[in-house]
Amino acid sequence: MVAKDGEGVATSERELTITRVFNAPQSLVFKVWTQPKHFSRWLEPKDFTTIGCQMIVQVGGMYRACIRSASPSQRESPEGTDHWMQGVYREIIEPERIIFTFAWENENSQPKNETLVTVIFTEQNNQTLMTFHQAIFESTESRNSHHSGWSECFDRLNAYLANTMSGKT
């Protein structure tokens, strides 16, 4: 049986799980998740650019990052729109797991609809299986939007890891 929330929406419909296998060691995949100079290089969906990233990677430490849309609409400035995100690290077990909160900021730089993200890194034959889980979203539409965005980020992560492994970054 699937749990329902107060609105009658199945909780599982508001959770997101993505798995990826990267041709990189577990320690490297963990590293690019926990160092701003690396994190900022892949934390952007298609048509976005990361313009700021601050991280204090320790339990209770905060992170804050900004991605800017590359293709402005009529409502946006010519430079695009800035989208700020923030969160707090809840658990860090190097090189196996990171748990943190995630929230987009509102116009007053306050978090809105905080979710919990768990990223597990498992070494398998010199590759890394990454299991990404995020919950609980306000709606299935929000979950679907995050699925698209994170999937594009993980495509960039895969390319970044390949370049890092070959010495191009």
TrEMBL record:
Domain Activator of Hsp90 ATPase homologue 1/2-like C-terminal, residue spans: 23-161
InterPro entries in the cross-refs: ASHA1/2-like_C, START-like_dom_sf
A Pfam family this chain is assigned to: AHSA1
Lineage top rank: taxon: Bacteria
Family per record: Belongs to the AHA1 family.
Protein name, entry field: SRPBCC domain-containing protein
Lineage of the species this protein comes from: Bacteria, Bacillati, Cyanobacteriota, Cyanophyceae, Leptolyngbyales
